Amino acid sequence: MMFGSINNCHNVGDFRKLAKRRLPGPIFHYIDGAADDEITYRRNTEAFNQCDLVPNVLSGVDKVDMSTTVMGQKLDLPLYCAPTALQRLFHHEGEIAVAKAAEKHGTMFGISSLGTASIEEISQLVSSPKLFQLYVHKDKGLNNALIERCKEANFEAMAVTVDTAVGGNRERDLHTGFTIPMKLKLSSMFSFAFHPMWALNYFTKPKWELSNLKEHIREGTTVMTTIGDYFTKMLDNSLSWNDVEKINKQWGREFAIKGIMSVDDAKKAVDIGATAIMISNHGGRQLDGSRSPFDQLAEIVDAVGDKIDVICEGGIRRGTHVLKALSLGAKACSGGRMYLYALASGGQKGVERSLTNLRNEIERDMKLMGVSNIQELSTKNLKFR
Length: 385
Prior knowledge:
Blueprint: H1 12-22, H2 25-32, H3 39-46, E1 51-53, E2 68-70, E3 73-75, E4 79-81, H4 87-90, H5 94-104, E5 109-112, H6 119-125, E6 130-134, H7 140-152, E7 157-161, H8 171-176, H9 186-193, H10 196-204, H11 227-234, H12 241-251, E8 254-260, H13 263-271, E9 276-279, H14 293-304, E10 309-313, H15 319-327, E11 332-335, H16 337-369, E12 382-384
Parallel strand pairs: 4-11, 5-6, 6-7, 7-8, 8-9, 9-10, 10-11
Antiparallel strand pairs: 1-12, 2-3
Helix pairs in contact: 1-16, 5-16, 13-14, 15-16
């Protein structure tokens, strides 16, 4: 692959290789790393290989409809950009690039509580569906302020992340000394020195900050912290189903719970009135040794799929992964690394190309499967090994 060329990135793996070349080591490993031995991180993608697609032929598939409706939002693509933190650290365009790329593809974009663009900025920027991901902090005033700001900015949906009672053991970050704001260690200085373009943008572009938190807390903007310590010290570790139900009522719009992995919890999400669940293990960055979202998808859909939108989040690298999840009853899929590598590689153009690659794969694979719309996908299309 030609160095520095997003035009030669034909899949998520290509973008990962390019991101590794473009980013200083500590930052690449923050995106790429996960908890403990990273078994769950790898399993998230490997799980899709445990079943095979069974195509039909001669079905008349000159045109295909990839659209879906999830959380009340019509998406042109059954795949959206999950909320992820610190995007301007990876590329100076950050969330703005991802939001614009998602809008161009007619899909949803999620902004994290730990985002580096503000709720208001994103609202004014794009008209496509917008999701805000709420980390519930110990500071109740902060939580209330974020919810009200999202209401005023007309965000269509909110997701509360529930798998961060404490920070995961992200050992790559411990080895590299990754913190926010960044602390340069002697061992990592050489990596920064050998990536001058990243350093030039980092030091010459407007300084980034945690735009949605800065008025309430200093951690992560002026007070140095690791992500693991931030989750442990700043988030509400006593969060309960009753608390999430109250947040849902306060929000009063499309509401998802992000981080569901068991049937019992999926049923509780239905009981408190959530409109969607995101089957997710935080990209393998929290509890290592846990199941993959795809592993859990079938039994959760069987239990609650007729009552709530089920989203499969994690490990998506190919269009066939999306089709397998949809065949098991997911309404849509989402992911972070699938576009973060591309963001790091080329900003908005990189994200657009990555989404284009995945769109083309989904369309081509649907035609090869003999289906003209995603509603035709079912368990009949799958054979488990």
